[in-house]
Amino acid sequence: MGAVLAAPAGLLAHLFDAPMRLWQRIAGRGGMIAFFLAPNMAIFGLFVIVPLGLNVAYALSGGTALFLPQRSYVGAANFERLLTCGDHMDPATCRDDLFWIAVWNTVRFVGLQVVVLVGVAMVTALILNGKIRARGFWRAVFFFPVLLSPVVVGLIWKWIFQRQGLLNWVMVELGMDPVNWLTDRTWAFLFSVGISVWAHAGFYALILLAGLQAIPRDIYEAAEMDRTSPGRAFRRITLPLLWPNLLVVIVLALIRAVQVFDEVYVLTGGGPGTSTMYLTQYIYETGFASSLRNPGVAAAASLLMGGVLVVLTIAQLGLTRWRDRQ
Amino acid sequence: MSAVAFLTRRRGGRGWHWTDVVTFGWLAAGLVLIFGPALWLLLSSFKTPAQLAEFPPSILPYASRSAMVDTGDGPRLLPLYTVELPDGTTAVMAEKNRIGIMANMVRPEAPDEVVKVNINARQPLREVAFATGNYTTPLQAFDFGRYLWNSVFVTVIATLITLLTNSMAAFALSKYEFKGRGAVMMVIVATLMIPLSVNLVPLYSVVSAVGLLNTRWGVILPTVATPTGVFMLRQYMLTIPDELLEAARMDNASEWQIYWRIVLPLAAPALAVLAIFSVVWRWNDFLWPLIVLSRKELFTLQIGLNSYAGELNVHWQFILAMTVVSIIPVLIVFFFLQRFITAGIAGTGLK
Amino acid sequence: MGHIRLEVVRKTYGPLEVLKGIDLSIEKGEFVVFVGPSGCGKSTLLRQISGLDRPSSGRIEIDGRDVTDVGAADRGLAMVFQSYALYPHMTVRDNLAFGLQNNRMPKAEIASRIAEAARMLEIGHLMTRRPGQLSGGQRQRVAIGRAVVRDPTAFLLDEPLSNLDAELRVSMRAELAALHARLKTTMIYVTHDQVEAMTLADRIVVLRDGAIEQVATPMELFNRPANRFVAGFIGAPRMNFLDVADAAALAPGQAMPGAAASVGVRPQNLRPGDGEAAMTVDLVEALGTETVLHGRLASGSRVIVAHAGQMAARRGDVLAVAAEAGKLHFFDAADRRVEA
Hints:
A: mainly alpha; MetI-like fold; two-stranded antiparallel ribbon; C: alpha+beta; 2 domains; 18 strands; 27% helix
């Protein structure tokens, strides 16, 4: 493969060399630095930095028009609309009830999903780190769903949960009545949590596994010499040493969970009703899909979500630094 | 010995400790829960629509068997059944025609001898057969061939651009001292925090303003300047000794050559990880293409699948088959490059 | 070709002055060694010459051409790095060819130069290997080969032998000397090892704290060190430094210059079993070819005596010791050499 790549790579280097030397001669080393940075920074600026600024402009302007010049400044009206509630716990009393339904759905989702996800990942990591045969194979097994696209995850499970699907067959075989899983509010919510755990647990298990493998073996051997019981070894050695990694994993899982959308959207479309509609779906539908399109409100909502994410990310970066120092 | 090894070692090799049971149970459950659904998808994707509608479903895909039988007015293709005859024996017979609950059946080897059979006393004769039409039809007659091509195009081009631009930026940020380097790094780290889902509305307006709405470039470009890629490559390039670059400068290499012929080849492991991730990311992208693309002929596989699954008259047989197709590249990555990915995740925590 | 001249070359990093105005002229074909303790600026000085670094002020000339602002690639020099800096992803042949290709040299010429260097350095059988598959000594040869094929105006060698084991270092040292004798190209060699400096150099440049202490041939450096630092740095075991009274006791007949504040005498120039001064032996190091005695004079001053050959001496023995006539070095209060 090296040889196959080398020929065209060599040719490219040859073709580029003369103009590059010329440019280096004209612009000096500073010019070369600019040249290396330019493509990435141009794309980055146009598609990351500029939109970031525009986001604020959208959030502060009203109307259904998408182009900024056609929009009028409305101050904090979009935020007011989102945040005004009789009782924040009860979306029905809010001016934008859908937003608060999405907020509380997301809060419930995050609360349950992160706990289950990190729990499953932790147990998996511990077991994969144990004395098992074919560790590589098992690691691959648990990692497999991580690579699947959210659409595939959603479709696979939709096919299983459908009225005449595999799950209902199992129900019948077990002597129970078939259930229409995805039209039941509680089941739909639980399955939205379930499939996202299914899809992502392997990823976090891998990070935790790396953390576990970094713990020197001789510590456990020393503990064994001291007649430490396995449970005590876990509480007093594994947990404290793994704690930095665990914290990073928890925050990372939080950041991802807040943005939940793809696989759940494919599985339930946010339904039944609005019971699995989460924040990103609210933003997507308010901004693009619904007939009552309102880019300003969508931008305001994304800024609010962005605020939460920035706090979480700063926490994560801080924690990562702290972990790497440990 | 590691934590669980500590927990799961068999006590002196005698008997099963409770932790062995947990380990075994967890691994078995994991295997069933993870590959079960995928296997079910694969088996279902080869079933005919009629079979997909069956409940309870069969595990394997079947097709009814039939035989050419000459019943007097020329040979015809007739479905075969296993029939329970009144004398208690069973026989394989073809159905000539059917009136109410009674069918006129013949033995294929003796087509003139018609027997009347109650339809409850017979079972269709089926054999395992794969309805490959589920795959060929949508790729040929529907737009899935086009979706597939769009996905391949987006994935390959986006990955190439990502590798090139990110590695160039990472090279500048790791191997040169210049004013503002700290500031650039700050911006990159800061934007690590801002996921695409926060920027949807203004990004849409930018993409639309530069005329990329409903183009494949509109899907590709906003995703390629990943701060993650720059960050990861820079970390790796920092480990390449500066003396190599100096040796190359003494060898009269231009800065471009130093990048292309020294640093890039040496950063190959990191580039491979980024390439794999980029392929998986771009192949699996959903929300952004969903927003940018509204013309069907530009849909990627993911968007195409979602839109087909959302239609009123759902052709599950095609959706299942195309879902399998969309998994194939991921499976290839999984089987051949899994080691790279797991190492990459463990090393950088990126996904 | 290969005349290099430095005029008041200074290098500062912020408030830190690493080179304090170096003036130096290196003749064509000369083998010059920069030597000094770590942190003395010898590698920095080499980097200014190579063009990998630019001096903060001053002027560098190669063959009469001002190259102060010329990049490394265009100075026509070749460098051998301490870590060898071989390109790990290229074969040995490609490592050698890379620089020549960059100069757009015809393929046939590249091939013949590589063949010549391979023959000279006996690395022909390694051509298709990569640096990772080579031993330390082989890498060293390839690194030198990469410089040789360039046919440079001058070779710059930055502690090239410091990563080799002792035995290899000795044989590579001899080979480097042979290589220089054969190529007759200017070589500038940085080391902290005085044995390398003494054995290889036509002239040695002793540096300390970013300034030149002395530039001289090895023997001149050994026989007439310009100051106490150079006297102490060159020669093993280290020169004994004594006060005038001790020196007078060791060499009764010797006239002392009035300005002398301290007196140096090399261990090899002290003879045990001779003279009137008494030394109490604290430690005996019998090396076979030489016996090194660490001891104290009556005044309490510590001295080291190196006796060529073997001798029976034990800790606690009291021996007579005398300095050879005319082998004393005198230094004034500012540590500068004073002639007798």
